[in-house]
Write a structure and sequence with these properties.
Blueprint (H helix, E strand, L loop, with lengths): L2 E5 L3 H13 L3 E5 L2 H11 L3 E5 L7 H10 L6 E5 L14 E4 L4 H16 L4
Parallel strand pairs: 1-2, 1-3, 3-4, 4-5
Length: 122
Protein backbone atom coordinates (compact mmCIF):
# COMPACT_ATOMS: atom_id res chain seq x y z
CA UNK A 1 0.00 0.00 0.00
CA UNK A 2 1.40 3.38 -1.01
CA UNK A 3 2.18 5.62 1.97
CA UNK A 4 1.20 9.18 1.26
CA UNK A 5 1.75 12.37 3.28
CA UNK A 6 -0.86 15.09 2.89
CA UNK A 7 0.27 18.53 4.09
CA UNK A 8 -2.73 20.87 4.20
CA UNK A 9 -3.65 23.60 6.70
CA UNK A 10 -7.34 23.89 5.77
CA UNK A 11 -9.15 21.26 7.91
CA UNK A 12 -12.07 20.79 5.47
CA UNK A 13 -9.78 20.32 2.47
CA UNK A 14 -7.55 18.02 4.48
CA UNK A 15 -10.44 15.82 5.63
CA UNK A 16 -12.03 15.49 2.19
CA UNK A 17 -8.69 14.85 0.44
CA UNK A 18 -7.52 12.29 2.99
CA UNK A 19 -10.88 10.48 2.78
CA UNK A 20 -10.75 10.34 -1.02
CA UNK A 21 -7.20 8.97 -0.96
CA UNK A 22 -7.92 6.43 1.78
CA UNK A 23 -11.01 5.18 -0.05
CA UNK A 24 -8.80 4.69 -3.12
CA UNK A 25 -6.56 2.39 -1.05
CA UNK A 26 -3.75 4.68 0.09
CA UNK A 27 -2.34 4.94 3.61
CA UNK A 28 -2.55 8.68 4.39
CA UNK A 29 -0.77 10.62 7.12
CA UNK A 30 -1.90 14.23 7.54
CA UNK A 31 0.17 17.24 8.61
CA UNK A 32 -1.40 20.64 9.21
CA UNK A 33 1.56 22.88 8.36
CA UNK A 34 4.95 22.86 6.63
CA UNK A 35 6.97 22.30 9.82
CA UNK A 36 4.93 19.25 10.80
CA UNK A 37 5.04 18.02 7.19
CA UNK A 38 8.83 18.31 7.07
CA UNK A 39 9.23 16.43 10.35
CA UNK A 40 6.86 13.61 9.36
CA UNK A 41 8.34 13.30 5.86
CA UNK A 42 11.88 12.93 7.18
CA UNK A 43 10.81 10.40 9.84
CA UNK A 44 8.43 8.27 7.77
CA UNK A 45 9.82 8.76 4.23
CA UNK A 46 6.43 8.36 2.48
CA UNK A 47 6.43 7.27 -1.16
CA UNK A 48 4.52 10.40 -2.19
CA UNK A 49 3.77 13.83 -0.72
CA UNK A 50 0.81 16.08 -1.60
CA UNK A 51 1.36 19.55 -0.15
CA UNK A 52 -0.39 22.89 -0.17
CA UNK A 53 1.73 25.95 -0.98
CA UNK A 54 0.45 28.63 1.40
CA UNK A 55 0.65 27.34 4.99
CA UNK A 56 1.79 28.49 8.42
CA UNK A 57 5.32 27.86 9.72
CA UNK A 58 6.84 26.81 6.37
CA UNK A 59 5.30 27.25 2.95
CA UNK A 60 4.98 24.18 0.76
CA UNK A 61 7.91 25.36 -1.37
CA UNK A 62 10.12 25.99 1.67
CA UNK A 63 9.25 22.52 2.97
CA UNK A 64 10.04 20.99 -0.43
CA UNK A 65 13.38 22.83 -0.60
CA UNK A 66 14.37 21.50 2.83
CA UNK A 67 13.24 17.96 1.97
CA UNK A 68 15.24 17.96 -1.27
CA UNK A 69 18.24 19.36 0.61
CA UNK A 70 17.94 16.46 3.08
CA UNK A 71 17.98 13.93 0.22
CA UNK A 72 14.24 13.20 -0.13
CA UNK A 73 13.94 12.18 -3.79
CA UNK A 74 10.40 10.82 -3.98
CA UNK A 75 7.54 12.52 -5.87
CA UNK A 76 5.92 15.66 -4.48
CA UNK A 77 2.66 17.18 -5.76
CA UNK A 78 2.17 20.89 -5.02
CA UNK A 79 -1.40 22.18 -4.73
CA UNK A 80 -2.23 25.89 -4.78
CA UNK A 81 -4.67 28.46 -6.10
CA UNK A 82 -1.69 30.48 -7.37
CA UNK A 83 -1.03 30.08 -11.10
CA UNK A 84 2.02 27.88 -11.72
CA UNK A 85 3.64 30.62 -13.84
CA UNK A 86 3.71 32.86 -10.74
CA UNK A 87 5.65 30.34 -8.64
CA UNK A 88 9.48 30.42 -8.33
CA UNK A 89 11.46 28.87 -11.19
CA UNK A 90 13.34 26.11 -9.32
CA UNK A 91 10.48 24.65 -7.34
CA UNK A 92 11.57 21.07 -6.60
CA UNK A 93 8.10 19.60 -6.93
CA UNK A 94 7.18 16.93 -9.49
CA UNK A 95 3.63 17.97 -10.35
CA UNK A 96 1.35 20.97 -9.91
CA UNK A 97 -2.36 20.72 -9.14
CA UNK A 98 -4.46 23.90 -9.24
CA UNK A 99 -6.87 24.52 -6.38
CA UNK A 100 -9.70 23.95 -6.10
CA UNK A 101 -9.10 20.49 -7.54
CA UNK A 102 -11.53 17.65 -7.97
CA UNK A 103 -11.12 14.15 -6.60
CA UNK A 104 -10.67 12.71 -10.09
CA UNK A 105 -7.81 15.08 -10.96
CA UNK A 106 -6.01 14.29 -7.71
CA UNK A 107 -6.46 10.53 -8.01
CA UNK A 108 -5.33 10.54 -11.65
CA UNK A 109 -2.10 12.29 -10.67
CA UNK A 110 -1.47 10.08 -7.62
CA UNK A 111 -2.14 6.93 -9.69
CA UNK A 112 0.37 8.03 -12.33
CA UNK A 113 3.07 8.41 -9.68
CA UNK A 114 2.10 5.09 -8.07
CA UNK A 115 2.53 3.34 -11.41
CA UNK A 116 5.94 4.97 -11.92
CA UNK A 117 7.05 3.98 -8.42
CA UNK A 118 5.89 0.40 -8.90
CA UNK A 119 7.78 0.28 -12.19
CA UNK A 120 10.94 1.22 -10.28
CA UNK A 121 11.19 4.88 -11.26
CA UNK A 122 10.73 8.12 -9.36
Amino acid sequence: MLRLLLVEDEPDVSLVTATVLEEAGYHVTVASDGCEGLEIALQEMPELIVTDFMMPCLSGLEMIERLRGAGYDRPIILTTAIAEQQLPRQPGYDAYLAKPYGSHALLTLVEAFRERLEAGGH
